[in-house]
Write a structure and sequence with these properties.
It contains 13 helices and nine strands. The chain has about 300 residues and is an alpha/beta fold. The chain folds into two domains: about 140 residues, Aspartate/ornithine carbamoyltransferase (Rossmann fold); about 160 residues, Aspartate/ornithine carbamoyltransferase (Rossmann fold, 3-Layer(aba) Sandwich), CATH 3.40.50. The protein has a five-stranded parallel β-sheet. It has a four-stranded parallel β-sheet with strand order 2-1-3-4, with helices on both faces. α4 packs across α5.
């Protein structure tokens, strides 16, 4: 594996190795020990979209492993592909650093950077995929539910980049995935087809949240209005009525169903405060696991 761009690009074996390494390194650091395998290595963190968890978890992960992280925002380097071509930026960065992490809007930017960089590219979020989030989620589910085989994950909300990465992850780990969205916000057919080619009949779409959460071990939601969609907020809030993960919906799920949200959460919209703070919520465990997965990913890609 040269880069980490999408869960769909990786083999099940590679993903299982990353998951095992995440668990091992998490245990190591929880026991107060360190693995400084990236001493002398440098990670460039390119941000076109702001983030709390992505920036802090990657920077801490790199420091934990003995390396250095450089945070670069649009004001520092210009929008990727605007001030200078992405292919030029990729070749310059690859001569300065050992890995390039990118959080951007267009997935095409990620692909172009990877094409021209001889060093690893990490997709920390694009409009098409959020693979680091998806793998941290799988790590969290594994910790709380044990064996992943046959588990059902119900995603309630917009068929966005997070939903897509979860669909791919479920297919790779022998899980079932159902996406419940209002009309017009469904997960695209190409993603569902790709997931079902990996694991037949594992992924489906519905317009009924109750149908989705029935027999689901995991109930997952995300914001209805992602960064860059602010002008659509009022429209989206109206059209997503009935798709909130609240107490009424959770009554239709198994009593021990776990609740997940990739954050930031808008309480009272896609999730109620009561569900967010309930005993079934593992939201902050999954937020913590961003650090543990990304630590493993950096070691996997950079350590020689």
């Amino acid at each position: 594996m040269k880069s980490f761009l999408s869960i769909q690009d990786c083999s099940s074996e590679e993903l299982k190795e990353l998951l095992a390494l995440s668990r091992d390194l998490k245990a190591l650091y929880k026991n107060g020990k360190r693995d400084i395998c990236l001493s002398g290595k440098v990670l460039a963190m390119l941000f076109e979209k702001a983030s709390l968890r992505t920036r802090v978890s990657f920077q801490v992960a790199m420091v934990d492993l003995g390396g250095t992280a450089i945070y670069l925002k649009p004001e520092d380097i210009g929008i990727i592909g605007k001030r200078e071509p992405a292919k030029d930026m990729a070749r310059v960065f690859a001569r300065y650093v050992d890995c390039i992490m990118v959080r951007t809007f267009s997935h095409e930017t990620i692909l172009e950077l990877d094409q021209w960089s001889h060093e690893p590219i990490i997709n920390a979020l694009s409009d098409w995929s959020h693979p680091c989030q998806g793998m941290a989620d799988i790590l969290t589910i594994r910790e709380h539910c044990g064996d992943l085989t046959g588990l059902k994950l119900a995603y309630i909300g917009d068929g966005n980049n997070v939903a897509r990465s979860l669909a791919f992850a479920c297919a790779k780990f022998n899980m079932q995935f159902v996406c419940a969205s209002p009309t017009g916000y469904e997960l695209d057919a190409e993603t569902l087809d790709a997931a079902n080619k990996t694991l037949p009949n594992c992924a489906s779409q519905t317009h009924d949240p109750v149908e989705a959460v029935t027999a689901a071990q995991i109930v997952y939601t995300d914001t209805w209005t992602s960064m860059g969609q602010e002008e659509e907020k009022a429209k989206r809030v109206a059209e997503f009525a009935g798709f909130s993960v609240d107490e009424a919906l959770m009554e239709k799920a198994p009593k021990d169903a776990k609740v997940m949200h990739c954050l930031p959460a808008y309480r009272g919209c896609e999730i109620s405060d009561g569900v967010m703070e309930s005993e079934n919520s593992i939201v902050f465990d999954q937020a913590e696991n961003r650090l543990h997965f990304q630590r493993a990913l950096l070691k996997y890609l950079i350590a020689k």
